[in-house]
Structure formats: C-alpha cells, structure tokens
C-alpha cells in the first residue's frame, strides 16, 4: 500500500531563516506530487505541483520554491521566511484522479 | 478565482440525525469530485468520490450526490456521530489533469 511521509511535524523558525520541508511517497511510482498550505480557518491553497522529476509548476508567486530531485521526493524551500509564511503545510500525491495527503507540517515563523 | 465553493463555513447537527454538506462548482469541465475529512493538525483523509457519469455514490453512512445541471454536489452522513465532527472539504478535478480544486471547507459539529 502507498504511504506518504512528511517531516518535520512541527517547526518554529525565526524570520529571515531558510526553510526545507521534505515529503516522500512509498508504494507507487511516478506520482503527481503537490504542496498545499492551509492558513488558520482557511481552505487549502495549492502552492506547487509536479508531474515528474525536475518538473515544477507554481500556482502562487511568493518567496517559496519547490524541487523534485527524485521520483517520490518533493521538497518545499525558502531562502528567507516571512511572518506570513506561518501556516500548516500539506504534501499530497495523486494517481488516477485520486489524491492523498500527508500528515502535515505546522510552521510557525517568529 | 474560486472554482469550487462551500458556502457554509459551519454546520451543527444532533447525533443520529442527517448531516448534509453542500458544494458548488463553476467549471463544467470537472468530471471527478471528492470529499475529504480533516481533523485539526492532521492531513485531510479521503472519504468518498464520484465520477461525473454517476449521480450518486454510497459508502456506508456516506453518500455523495451529484447534480451536473446545477453544478452542485452534496455529502450526506446518516446517522451522524460525534466522531464525524471535523472540517469537510470538497474537491474537483478534470480527468488526466494534474490539479485538484478545493472548496474552503465546512466545519461540522455533531452534538451528542
């Protein structure tokens, strides 16, 4: 069966510091991968999606970036975090019209 | 541009009664619809889906209805249980497309 891992589960970072969130999927090959963000009391905002290694589509311009160095690995990064980056970040994978989410990372920028 | 909308931010229902969560969409190209349940500080979990070639799909206490002409879908939970209390998201996609469009969610509270 397929599983999706995200880490860390929680993260507290100072403003201006870099960010690296990692997501890996097991049990499937060549999945579509996604990064979402959910601010408190808000819906899911799609940040990036990838249909293959090195292929990244950005949905919302911001100071975040994504990379897919391996088929089942998706990384969300920032060079300098802003206070407004505080949110709940979710990785997801999809295949055949169904999408499955990881457990999420709670990021607090102070 | 919100292509999938959940106009009720919250819903409160008595245990044992029916919960009806609604979702509207604007893009007639959507042909696959999904419902997710989300607890705080956790990722959404897949509940049930429906293809546009159907108008109803049932799985235990959960039934999803699709009205293509009205561009409307709904999730029925019968009977509602306190453990159903969570935020419910509907989502839509186009076959072989790579993006899923989510509504803003409805927070369901099932009172014992």
Task: Give your account of this protein's structure.
Chain A is built from no helices and eleven strands. By secondary structure, chain A is mainly β. The model of chain A has no long low-confidence stretch (mean pLDDT 92). The N and C termini of chain A lie far apart (38 Å). In chain A, strands 2, 4, 5, 6, 9, 10 and 11 form a seven-stranded mixed beta sheet that branches. In chain A, strand 7 and strand 8 form a beta hairpin. In chain A, 38% of the residues are buried. Chain B has 112 residues and is mostly beta strands. Helices cover 0% and strands 54% of the residues of chain B. Chain B is built from no helices and eleven strands. In chain B, the strands form two sheets. In chain B, strands 2, 4, 5, 9, 10 and 11 form a six-stranded mixed beta sheet that branches. Chain B has a five-stranded antiparallel beta sheet with strand order 1-3-8-7-6, with no helix packed on it. In chain B, strand 9 and strand 10 form a beta hairpin. At the A-B interface, strand 4, strand 5, strand 9 and strand 10 of A face strand 4, strand 5 and strand 9 of B.
